[in-house]
Amino acid sequence: MDCRGLVRSLRGFTSLRGVRATRSALRRRWIDARGLPARGPERARVPGAVTGAEPLPGGGIVRFARSELRIRVVVGGAVFWGWDGAGPEPSYALADGVPAPDPRAELEPDKDGGWRVVSERVTVEVSRHGAVEVRTPGGVTLRRDLPPRWWEPVHGGPARWAQRTEVPADARFFGLGGRASGPRLRDGVYRLWNTDPGGSFGPDGDPLSITMPVQLVVADAGTHLVFHDNSWDGRVTLREGEEGAGSGHDRPGSCEVRMDGGPLRCWVIVGKPARVLSRWSRLTGAPAVPPSWALGAQHARWGFGSEAEVRRIVAGYQERGLPLSAVHLDIDHLAGHRVFTVDRERFPALPELADELRRAGVRLVSIVDPAVKAERGYAVYESGRAAGAFVRDGRGREVRGEVWPGECAYPDFTDPRVRQWWGGLYEERLRQGFAGVWHDMNEPVSFAPFGDTTLPRSVRHDLDGRGGDHREAHNVYALAMARAGYEGLRRLRPDERPFLFSRSGWAGMQRYGGTWSGDVSSSWDGLRASLSLVLGMGLCGVPYSGPDVGGFGGSPSPELYLRWFQLAAYLPLFRTHAAIGAGRREPWEFGPAVLEHARAALAERERLHPYFVTLAHLSRLTGAPYVRPLWWGSPDDRALRECGDAFVLGDALLVAPVLERGVDRRLVRLPRGRWFDTATGQGYDGPGQVLLDAPLSRVPVLARAGSVIPVRGADGLLELEVWAPAGGRRGGGLVVADAGD
């Protein structure tokens, strides 16, 4: 904690909320002291020598002296393996159960007493001491997992484990959920524990609200995704390799995964990036397609304060000819910050306001937090108590924490009955006229002046009938909440696509919606972190995301705000937002020059709306993110793997945002092929670098030669923008029609 963080903590301690939060934190520690026995002495274990094997469909079981390894290659080429009898289920990540085993893949003896499974797309070799090696069909090694190690408490309890992996010396790491320091993950330690950043964060913020044990590893030998299906607290230590000069030996890259408990099991998918994400999408679920309006410009602020202020903001957009598709209401519209309520003094006629705005083409979106104020007479709390919905400690007592409404209880979203109950509560939001929801504070958060701001780890959870505690449930809590909300909205309005996005989540959250960057700082570092988060989430299978334009906390300069606005115009979720007291974020608040340039960015976003709609549907069909790193189509291009300051939007556009103060020209690295500057029409040939103008009025955007891009014409009708193919080549594109909501 730095000095500023310490000061904030001390100020919080002296306030009434700080006193209550301190009391809650002490109570949390007391609950864990009683509910979690000390680990005591531990016994280390490794698999030992191989003793035999049992072939099964798609693979089999390899037995060792002190463990066993189950391997299965499924239809499509994904590989699963699990130690100590761990199977692919139960899993919160898998969408529709486990795919069928590949009947052509068989377990067979290998050299030196080991075993192997050979399939069409991948070969898995198991050494006689338990190392697992993944190879391409041509025999090139993509990863080598060394024999794992477990530490088991002598007197019983969950075993900790560690798995160390070697990858090619040129490999680069991506993923692990939302990482502000990415998109390429440098050497370091990354924690796997969903965490409230506590006000604002920059590139050094870690962990953040969404952590996932999902890595995409890109090397000359090929690309592969690895997913350790374990929701416990853990750490991933990455170290990039180094190629030997001359006749020197290569030093391979390494990754070590350490978990505090839970199964040691993982999935590996091998292939080109597009194929890897396609298989990952089939395994964990196709991304939800947002309503058409949710691909337009959206505006939020913590502190609108009243219906009059909402009308003023919407009128400001309309009077200036600025497109606006939605307004988001934060916790200040709730009565006492209590979820599923309305402050009738500030918003006396919310349904009428929602109807008025909808006729003007603007939807209302509501915040929904998971914490329920523990107040007798409050309908949501009373119905939750009657349903047995709230988490309890090992002695059966309701566990409470301190959040915005005060002392709160927490629904157990890992219980199917609680998800059914919670989903029904969204009927109140629909009656108020809201068209969508955003889930916040769902790591979940319980305020504390110091230390971990979450629930006691000994809190009991249903875990869909298996039973367990918060050590296993914490990272999937928000995922289960998103499922409850999404399924509730589907039941309540079966003819409309739900609009839901969440601050926290886990692998598979794309089935229910998207996410946003959370409380990113209002700084140039925060701007760069915003792009990293969107790219990283897309590579983990969550394609719909975006930042708080301008940053959440602090006051951006006009230049910073404009550059953020221009970046967000090309990201899936385009939303301005700010903390209470951080100032207004409407484009006209930053002066006439910023207003005109922001107008141009909004106009381009509206023009590209059919393209975003097409990308949304293609993402559902193929798993490909809207926003992709430059190496997406050329993973063997090492220079592109190092580049994190530009991206491709779909297959057709390359966007090079300005991420530094005072820049009016910037270098842009091009993938192979011919590219046209959309502002000047000048053509450039890649691979290579070009220096392009980046005046305050725009950022460099290039179109791939041969692209056909669906756009909205001046009359509002669909048009096709065609860019000439390179000499001797052909071109084309896709258009996916959309029904709207």
UniProtKB/TrEMBL annotation:
Keywords: Glycosidase, Hydrolase. Pfam families: Gal_mutarotas_2, Glyco_hydro_31_2nd, Glyco_hydro_31_3rd. Belongs to the glycosyl hydrolase 31 family. The lineage of its organism: Bacteria, Bacillati, Actinomycetota, Actinomycetes, Kitasatosporales. Residues 287-615 form the Glycoside hydrolase family 31 TIM barrel domain. InterPro entries: Gal_mutarotase_sf_dom, GH, Glyco_hydro_31_AS, Glyco_hydro_31_C, Glyco_hydro_31_N_dom, Glyco_hydro_31_TIM, Glyco_hydro_b. This is Glycosyl hydrolase. Residues 88-235 form the Glycoside hydrolase family 31 N-terminal domain. The keyword Hydrolase applies. The keyword Hydrolase applies. Residues 623-709 form the Glycosyl hydrolase family 31 C-terminal domain. One of its GO terms (molecular function) is hydrolase activity.
